Amino acid sequence: MRDAGINLCRIGEFAWSRLEPRQNEFTLDWLHQTLDILAEHGIDVMMCTPTPTPPAWLTRAYPDTVMANARGQRAHHGARRHYCPSSRTYREHTRRIVTKLVTDLKSHRNIVAWQLDNEFGPEYGWCHCDNCQEGFRAWLKARYETLDRLNEAWKTGFWSTDYTDWAQIRLAEDDYLPIYPSRRMDSRRFWSDTINAYAAYQYDLVRSIDPDITITTNGMGPIYTFFDYFKLFDKMDVACDDLYFDYATQDCNALTMNVYRSFKPGKPFWIAETGSGALDHNRPPLPDQFRAWAYSSWAHGGDAHIVFRWRTCLSGQEQELQGILEHNGRPRHRYRTVQKTFNEIRQVRQQLGEMPLPKADVAFIVDFNTLWGYESARVGAEVGANQQMMTLHKQLYARNVLADFIPPTRDFQQYRLIILANLMMIDAAFAERLKAFVRGGGIVLAIGQIGMRDFNDNYLAETAPQHLHDLLGITIEGGMYLTSFVGPDEALARPVRHSRPVELPMSGAIGDAQIRGIARAWAADCDVQDATILLRFDTDTYAGQAALTEKPTGNGKAIYLATTHPDDALLGRLIEYALAAAQVPLGPAAPLYVEVVRRGAVSFCINHTAEPQQVQLDTPGRPVLGAVEENTVKLAPFGVAIVKHD
Ligand SMILES: [Zn+2]
Q1: Quick one: which H or E segment has residue 159?
Q2: What is the pLDDT of residues 307-318, one digit of tens each?
Q3: Cβ distance 643 to 617 under 8 Å?
Q4: Cα separation of 381 and 21, whole Å?
Q5: Which value, in Å, is the radius of gyration of the alpha carbons in the chain?
Q6: How far is the CA of 193 from the centre of ligand 1 (A)?
Q7: What DSSP designation does 11 have?
Q8: What are phi and psi of 353, to 5 degrees?
Q9: Based on CB atoms within 10 Å of each CB, which residue in 34, 232, 407, 455 is the most buried?
Q10: Distance between CA atoms of 376 and 386, rounded to whole angstroms?
């Protein structure tokens, strides 16, 4: 490990049955020995609490610690994350094992951080046990106080959903449709609060024993919608992500890192897990790809890059996930790749010293209410805030423009461009701050379903976009899904389901460019009161109506695109137009998947393609890594160059 340049490792996240083989019988000798050996070789440790995998004796003796599905069936032993986060009994066992571990291991000074649990979330589904059902009802009582208020907020009545007794209300079943959207929405909120409360319980426990240690947990991405990660990482000391780069497209990997950098403003994120080999048999990264990913992580603000795992498992559920060493424990290709990369990065880090984090002028507003709203209702798979943000982010990524991802409650006055992607729930206070932002010269780009629902996932009786009519100068009177029209050869059922995608043409001008584009997935039925129409729909029901509008206010303006997934060329042009209005410069021109990320006076140039590439930088500099002539950076396939500008 030391020879491979590894100076931090993460251990113990699933080891409960080896730490406490029988209740109150602890066997920590092997762990002390491991920590001592690592210390001898200068390797720091992120120690983990083992709570994702309770031992068999525990789940057998205390069945109320095990989660139950919507039909009330308890999970069986042998999975992971199959505990009930509401269970008081489980908290008691959590307290015992965590207290024992932190207290006993505190003397090991090479423990630099604690990871709580592992990938908090509903890996096995959310729990529906009686404790959770009672907890949900208590949570609802605290939120609504009376059943009348709950019925009013949920707008019950349809399908006889009025409630006359709290005992009638149950958590949303998560395995079949259709569920009343408001009930599902509040179930999501309850589960989010429950898992966050359990994470906070562990945090406070570790903190009470070790007042100075870094405490965190490992999340997932790109935008993990299962529970409120802003709340989770507000509590944690550092944002950690398990980012397997081969799992998503590289623009989504960059999005993930931008999201994690945004969780803790001003603080680097850590990658708690990444792969040096294949997640399964199918897709091993090339050696230089691993290196390119590691530099990309550093460029985007990553401060730790931990490989899962050291030696490939002989047995168990993850035996196909390739570790750094082979099954036989011998160092081969992946070891050499890790060794080359980590030792090189260590040298380069010494040369570069401290760098500021990359700074974004663009921010997406991410609201878990909207994310859960889409997942709680029946909408087409293409319509949603998450997918929309990924599509838009790819256009920014292709232009080497960095973006942050922030909650609506966070101050955004330091940004130049704010993007609302299908933000279908708009809070009045947020709308006021958005207006002040535009008056002060900021640009807002709003896309698709904006301000159409309340925070209980019901459509509004008033005209959309709620609270933003003045800013956008339009009303959204309704909309149309573009999955299919009814052609003579189309059917929902007979003889078999058959449809064709609808592509709705639109045309006009964006800036001085004449545009012909295509709307997909959803189109808004807009009336324009006080905005300039840049594009109009050309055909079908909305022919002649606004497809793209803009309205200046003060020194800024608000742009609205009345569809969700336009074609890439139009979306790219629109993004460039919004960036220009916001006076956000494009990054150095480069083919897609050739990244240039700036950290202070340092440019990271990373080629994620299998072909050689060139990048023209705006300012001269000297190479710290790779080849630079004048301002031209030459990159081998999956090559990396780092340029320091003086
Ligand atoms: Zn439960």
Answers
A1: strand 156-159
A2: 999 999 999 999
A3: yes
A4: 46
A5: 26
A6: 13
A7: E
A8: 65, -155
A9: 232
A10: 14
